[in-house]
């Protein structure tokens, strides 16, 4: 029993990442009808927003510290981050420590801007072209974005730790009445899951309860009619693209402490996220979220020792296997709508 | 040979290019400053033609039927593994290895195609991608006894090799064609130029010519016409009472066999396999080659494969000091600026250049290099008034 709970928990953080990326993919597909292969790159850029901010925060200048001497008796030079000068050392340390959560504020405008630029600059010209062309051009864009990041940040993963307050693990076992130390779970992963839940909730609430969201939903159902009613639906879809980019970026920002970001992390997630979208049903937002968590949990179940003994290697392929079975038995996916991408 | 005059000309041109490639690719004398642009060394020439085969095969599927497979590297990988096992168990002669690689890749693509072709469009792309990633993950983990996992496979001295008999003391197993070793080369020095004629390259080139000939025949056959019909309007095809599935499946298997052939040849040239050959970026690369050259055209994929492999080898060899040499004649400030501007695109930044190039081609030149060539050609011809040129597009009447 405790092993099962542990695996469900383990699957949640990866599932959250899948769900967030798949949600963004589905938003773009549902509104603009574009298959965005560069969405993984957006996730990766989000992660590098966190890296960038933590670097900016630790920008330092050299100060001669008269109180400390090196072994020759000369005053020692110390690096002092600029942030100390502004906020003082104590507050500065806290800010540097909380770099990753603070990056959220930094990442949102950056990602929305990138999303706008992508949609207006490139993807706009591909609405009328076949899906294959859209896949190809966004695939090329993903390579370009990835290589730009690689040029500036190098090819090695860059460790970006979570705030010190979240470094420990939470003992679920003790709370639920099992033996202590059987179900332990890092705090940050809990934070990630909660964060993902909030973001997903916010996106759904935005679509469901605001006038803007209502218009967008109407546009997803019948773009032409909404346009005929005198609403500039293109503008709203562009904004949705920005929001989708921001969702992917935020998923990346918060993922940095779990997995040190490197330039190809986006592609690794993208392939799986596409599978998630297909399993959930192309164009279905709730399907994408559901499938994301489902496949994340399934993946962690498949990597249990008991399962691996009977079916070796199943953890590597379970997601693809599920996708193949779903596509063959239920081509629309778990919650796909009728008539979306069926030809 | 069942070809019309234009196709014969095309085939002959390709054959001549292949035959004289060691000269054409080595235009600069040894030791000169431009020698780094020479591509006439065996390893690169072999890759040029082998990836040409891979792209020709991919084009039969994507160019004719419009089905975009993102998992073709899996067939190349499976073919490679089959070939290396043939070399380990049977003989170091490359003929059985190549034959078995084609057969195994064909069987595997029959299985994958039979399942994937139930869906079309993006679903098809994702299904093939899923299969390829699955094969890659399995080759890396569970199938290690067969695939060698991370270390890959190489022929070992104590492999059985039933037909070859024992090796002489101190000899290592080398791939050969009835005794002619694949890495055997003849070097011809003319003045400062050194031309290398490599046995493996010529074998691969002959195989590519055969593959190219077969692809011409497929393009011109009624079967090829059916595949084009699938691309332009599958629904209409169904309404006329024809089942498109056997045709697309056949195209899929053929292109899978081409990929297996390329995999087998890769093994024949350097007798080693690793799972990274099946990674999805490798599948992406063949897509790039085909699109860049011109999907749906005969010569396009070969051009694309040649272009990408050539640039990959040459551009990634340029480094900062070479750049500084080039721009040395300029004033210092401008030189530094130029070097800083160009530097991200060369050496390790080759993929950035490739990505940008690919995007430009998809955006402005959907027909690839071939279309670019035709446009340039049209600029100079201007025989017919514009307007009656066939643009190859069909507008379905709906």
Automatic annotation (TrEMBL), chain A:
<feature type="transmembrane region" description="Helical">
    <location>
        <begin position="42"/>
        <end position="64"/>
    </location>
</feature>
<dbReference type="GO" id="GO:0022857">
    <property type="term" value="F:transmembrane transporter activity"/>
</dbReference>
<keyword id="KW-0472">Membrane</keyword>
<feature type="transmembrane region" description="Helical">
    <location>
        <begin position="236"/>
        <end position="257"/>
    </location>
</feature>
<feature type="transmembrane region" description="Helical">
    <location>
        <begin position="190"/>
        <end position="216"/>
    </location>
</feature>
<feature type="transmembrane region" description="Helical">
    <location>
        <begin position="269"/>
        <end position="295"/>
    </location>
</feature>
<comment type="similarity">
    <text>Belongs to the binding-protein-dependent transport system permease family. LivHM subfamily.</text>
</comment>
<keyword id="KW-1133">Transmembrane helix</keyword>
<feature type="transmembrane region" description="Helical">
    <location>
        <begin position="301"/>
        <end position="328"/>
    </location>
</feature>
<dbReference type="InterPro" id="IPR052157">
    <property type="entry name" value="BCAA_transport_permease"/>
</dbReference>
<feature type="transmembrane region" description="Helical">
    <location>
        <begin position="16"/>
        <end position="35"/>
    </location>
</feature>
<feature type="transmembrane region" description="Helical">
    <location>
        <begin position="98"/>
        <end position="123"/>
    </location>
</feature>
<keyword id="KW-0813">Transport</keyword>
<keyword id="KW-0812">Transmembrane</keyword>
<keyword id="KW-0029">Amino-acid transport</keyword>
<dbReference type="GO" id="GO:0005886">
    <property type="term" value="C:plasma membrane"/>
</dbReference>
<dbReference type="InterPro" id="IPR001851">
    <property type="entry name" value="ABC_transp_permease"/>
</dbReference>
<keyword id="KW-1003">Cell membrane</keyword>
<dbReference type="GO" id="GO:0006865">
    <property type="term" value="P:amino acid transport"/>
</dbReference>
<protein>
    <submittedName>
        <fullName>Branched-chain amino acid ABC transporter permease</fullName>
    </submittedName>
</protein>
<dbReference type="Pfam" id="PF02653">
    <property type="entry name" value="BPD_transp_2"/>
</dbReference>
Automatic annotation (TrEMBL), chain B:
<keyword id="KW-1133">Transmembrane helix</keyword>
<dbReference type="Pfam" id="PF02653">
    <property type="entry name" value="BPD_transp_2"/>
</dbReference>
<keyword id="KW-0472">Membrane</keyword>
<dbReference type="GO" id="GO:0005886">
    <property type="term" value="C:plasma membrane"/>
</dbReference>
<feature type="transmembrane region" description="Helical">
    <location>
        <begin position="286"/>
        <end position="305"/>
    </location>
</feature>
<feature type="transmembrane region" description="Helical">
    <location>
        <begin position="199"/>
        <end position="219"/>
    </location>
</feature>
<dbReference type="GO" id="GO:0015658">
    <property type="term" value="F:branched-chain amino acid transmembrane transporter activity"/>
</dbReference>
<protein>
    <recommendedName>
        <fullName>Branched-chain amino acid ABC transporter, permease protein</fullName>
    </recommendedName>
</protein>
<dbReference type="InterPro" id="IPR043428">
    <property type="entry name" value="LivM-like"/>
</dbReference>
<feature type="transmembrane region" description="Helical">
    <location>
        <begin position="93"/>
        <end position="115"/>
    </location>
</feature>
<keyword id="KW-0812">Transmembrane</keyword>
<feature type="transmembrane region" description="Helical">
    <location>
        <begin position="352"/>
        <end position="373"/>
    </location>
</feature>
<keyword id="KW-1003">Cell membrane</keyword>
<feature type="transmembrane region" description="Helical">
    <location>
        <begin position="69"/>
        <end position="87"/>
    </location>
</feature>
<dbReference type="InterPro" id="IPR001851">
    <property type="entry name" value="ABC_transp_permease"/>
</dbReference>
<feature type="transmembrane region" description="Helical">
    <location>
        <begin position="45"/>
        <end position="62"/>
    </location>
</feature>
<feature type="transmembrane region" description="Helical">
    <location>
        <begin position="7"/>
        <end position="25"/>
    </location>
</feature>
<feature type="transmembrane region" description="Helical">
    <location>
        <begin position="246"/>
        <end position="266"/>
    </location>
</feature>
<feature type="transmembrane region" description="Helical">
    <location>
        <begin position="122"/>
        <end position="143"/>
    </location>
</feature>
């Amino acid at each position: 029993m405790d092993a099962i709970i542990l695996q469900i928990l383990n699957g949640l953080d990866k599932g959250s990442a899948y769900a967030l990326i798949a949600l963004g993919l589905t938003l773009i597909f549902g509104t603009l009808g574009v298959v965005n292969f560069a969405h993984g790159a957006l996730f990766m850029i989000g992660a590098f927003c966190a890296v960038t901010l933590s670097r900016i925060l630790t920008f330092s200048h050299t100060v001669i510290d008269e109180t400390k001497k090196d072994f020759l008796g000369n005053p020692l030079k110390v690096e002092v981050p600029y942030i100390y000068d502004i906020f003082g050392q104590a507050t500065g340390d806290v800010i540097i420590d909380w770099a990753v959560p603070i990056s959220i504020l930094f990442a949102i405008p950056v990602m929305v801007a990138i999303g706008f630029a992508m949609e207006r600059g490139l993807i706009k010209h591909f609405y009328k072209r076949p899906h294959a062309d859209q896949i190809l051009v966004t695939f090329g864009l993903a390579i370009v974005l990835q290589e730009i990041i690689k040029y500036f940040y190098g090819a090695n993963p860059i460790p970006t730790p979570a705030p010190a307050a979240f470094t420990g693990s939470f003992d679920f076992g003790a709370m639920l009445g099992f033996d202590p130390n059987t179900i332990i779970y890092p705090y940050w992963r809990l934070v990630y899951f909660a964060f993902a839940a909030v973001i997903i909730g916010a996106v759904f609430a935005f679509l469901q309860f605001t006038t803007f969201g209502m218009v967008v939903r109407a546009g997803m159902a019948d773009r032409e009619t909404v346009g005929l009613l005198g609403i500039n639906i293109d503008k709203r879809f562009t904004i949705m693209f920005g929001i989708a980019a921001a969702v992917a970026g935020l998923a990346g920002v918060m993922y940095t402490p779990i997995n040190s970001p490197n330039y190809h992390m986006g592609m690794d997630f993208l392939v799986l996220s596409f599978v998630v979208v297909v399993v959930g049903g192309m164009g279905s937002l709730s399907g994408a979220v559901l499938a994301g968590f489902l496949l994340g949990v399934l993946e962690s179940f498949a990597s249990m020792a008991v399962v691996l003994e009977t079916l070796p290697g199943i953890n590597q392929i379970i997601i693809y296997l599920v996708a193949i079975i779903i596509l063959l038995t239920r081509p629309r996916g778990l919650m796909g709508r009728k008539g979306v991408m069926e030809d | 040979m069942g070809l019309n005059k234009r196709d014969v000309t095309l085939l002959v041109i390709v054959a001549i290019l292949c035959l004289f490639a060691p000269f054409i690719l080595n235009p600069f004398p040894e030791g000169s400053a431009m020698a780094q642009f020479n591509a006439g060394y065996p390893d690169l020439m072999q890759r040029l033609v082998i990836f040409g085969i891979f792209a020709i095969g991919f084009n039969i599927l994507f160019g004719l039927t419009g089905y975009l497979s993102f998992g073709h590297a899996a067939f190349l990988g499976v073919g490679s593994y089959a070939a290396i096992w043939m070399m380990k168990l049977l003989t170091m002669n490359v003929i059985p290895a190549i034959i078995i690689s084609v057969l195994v890749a064909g069987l595997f693509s029959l299985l994958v195609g039979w399942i994937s072709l139930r869906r079309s469009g993006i679903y098809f792309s994702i299904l093939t991608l899923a299969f390829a990633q699955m094969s890659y993950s399995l080759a890396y983990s569970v199938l290690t006894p067969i695939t060698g996992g991370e270390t890959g496979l190489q022929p070992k001295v104590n492999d059985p090799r039933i037909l070859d008999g024992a090796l002489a003391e101190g000899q290592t197993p080398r791939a050969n064609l009835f005794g002619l070793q694949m890495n055997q080369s003849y070097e011809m020095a003319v003045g400062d130029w050194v031309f290398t004629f490599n046995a493996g390259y010529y074998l691969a080139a002959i195989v590519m010519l055969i593959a190219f000939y077969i692809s011409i025949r497929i393009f011109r056959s009624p079967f090829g016409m059916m595949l084009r019909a699938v691309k332009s309007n599958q629904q209409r095809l169904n309404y006329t009472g024809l089942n498109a599935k056997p045709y697309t499946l056949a195209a899929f298997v053929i292109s899978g066999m081409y990929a297996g052939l390329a995999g087998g040849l890769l093994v024949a040239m350097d007798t080693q396999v690793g799972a990274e050959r099946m990674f999805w970026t490798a599948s992406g690369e063949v897509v790039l080659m085909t699109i860049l050259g011109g999907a749906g055209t005969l010569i396009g994929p070969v051009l694309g494969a040649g272009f990408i492999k050539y640039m990959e080898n040459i551009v990634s060899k340029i480094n900062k000091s070479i750049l500084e040499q080039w721009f040395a004649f300029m004033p210092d400030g401008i030189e530094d600026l130029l070097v800083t501007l160009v530097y991200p695109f060369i050496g390790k930044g080759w993929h950035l250049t490739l990505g940008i190039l690919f995007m430009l081609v998809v955006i402005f030149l959907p027909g690839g290099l071939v279309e670019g060539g035709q446009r340039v050609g049209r600029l100079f011809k201007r025989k017919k008034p514009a307007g009656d040129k066939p643009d190859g597009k069909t507008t379905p009447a709906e």
